[in-house]
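User: Run a structure prediction on this.
Assistant: Running it now.
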Amino acid sequence: MKFMVIVKASAASEAGAMPSVKLLTEMGKFNEELVKAGVLLAAEGLHPSSKGARIRFHGDQRTVIDGPFAETKELIAGYWLIEVSSKEEAIEWMKRVPNPHDEGESEIEIRQVFTEADFGDALPPELREQEAVMREQLAH
């Protein structure tokens, strides 16, 4: 099972404050544990929303909205993508994460990634085949 673990932004991360050397060291050690256990697929921090954009959809119309975005608690500062056997295992791993915002208040969210099987009959055979071809191409 794949899980995306989302690190919620803080006022400091949105202001562009860089993590301390201590936190970078602790995160590096934690990520190394994930790699050695064979569960880490990806992990990255994100620039503040002031450097980003959103695209709002309304029917066929697209509206681009440049950052920054006001609701810090709804923003993402970084993520891990892990593959483990259960949600419980994902939780156990993430309980070991160093506090993402040094000593301040932090929150991470753990969300399971959809697989083809999750779509059941809603995914027609031709789309299953298209998905399989695309994943094969990505693997190379």
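The chain has a mean pLDDT of 93.
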